[in-house]
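Input chain follows. Return structure tokens only.
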Amino acid sequence: AFMMAVIALSLPETIILRRVLKWQLIAAFLTVVGAGILAVGYLFNLVL
């Protein structure tokens, strides 16, 4: 989960997205991606 978060929630990506998206959409994107990464991490912990 940490490795996915480092790539998906990186500062350079946020800066690039800031040029094309409003801050509300960026916040929604970061929230959804972060929640998804947490869910996948917990799922793998339950399975393994």
